[in-house]
Amino acid sequence: MKLKKNTTKIYVTLAVWAFLTVGMFVYGFKIVENSNTQAQAKLDTLNSELSALQAERDSFNKAKKDLDTLASKDMQPEDFYSKDTTLVNEIRFFEGLADRVGIKMQLSGPSGTSQTAPKAKSLSGEIILVPLNISVSGPFPKVLEFAQAMENLPFATQTNGFTLSTLSATEVSANFVGSFYLRK
Q1: Within this chain, do residues 114 and 154 fall inside the same structural domain, yes or no?
Q2: Residues 18, 39: one domain?
Q3: Is there a single domain that holds both residue 51 and residue 89?
Q4: Could you say which of 15, 24, 117, 132 has the lowest number of CB atoms within 10 Å?
Q5: Interatomic CA distance for residues 91 and 160, integer angstroms
Q6: Among 23, 53, 73, where does a domain finish?
Q7: Hey, CA dihedral for 29, 34, 36, 37, is it positive or negative?
Q8: 160: phi then psi, degrees, rounded to nearest 5
Q9: Given phi > 0 = left and psi -120 to 50 = alpha, else beta, which region is 109?
């Protein structure tokens, strides 16, 4: 009788174990898998946010380092914007550049007053966009030299268009359309 009782206990224990095992395979592992999938998705989202924040921090540190480097330079970022509301210095600069290179130049675009000029988006102070249209003509190497000098102007500019066309076998014309920034 005692042997039969022990055998029954073993069978009942095995049946319970089999039932739990089947239950785990049918339901339990799916619940754990769903939980792991949700946890992995959240972890991926957090890693993505962490990467974005690290990139932002690195960009901030590089910008801070660049500003520290610029602080020791002769030309400060505030000097990038012209403060000459009469535009005399800018016009003289363009005329002097054309004379130095040895080409003909026509300048058009600046008109009106600083109150009627379009405003640029700025974090501090009021910055005005001054439209600019420069037409030059001369030998190609000299026009090219003028264009290369336009890349290194002593004030901030934005080029919106550039056209180059031939006038003769030895002369070309170029037209620069853009604007420069004037701080009031």
Answers
A1: yes
A2: yes
A3: no
A4: 15
A5: 19
A6: 73
A7: positive
A8: -100, -20
A9: left
Per-residue pLDDT tens digits for 45-101: 999 999 999 999 999 999 888 888 877 776 655 555 555 555 677 778 888 889 999
pLDDT at position 118 is 47
Asked whether 82 and 182 are in contact (CB, 8 A), the reply is yes
What single-letter DSSP state applies at residue 123?
A: S
**174 and 108 co-located in one domain:** yes
> For residue 145, what are its two tokens?
């030299």
The tokens describing 184, both together, are 């009031």
Asked if 181 contacts 130 with a C-beta cutoff of 8 angstroms, the reply is yes
Assess contact for 115 and 122: CB atoms under 8 A.
no
Of 79, 38, 53, 184, nearest in space to 122 by CA: 184
Domain count within the chain: 2
Token digits of residue 116 = 């009627």
166 and 104 in a common domain? yes
When pLDDT is cut at 50, 70 and 90, the band that residue 115 belongs to is: low
The residue type at 102: G
The model's pTM is: 0.49
- Decide: 174 and 164 in contact? Cβ < 8 Å: yes
Residues present in the chain in total: 184
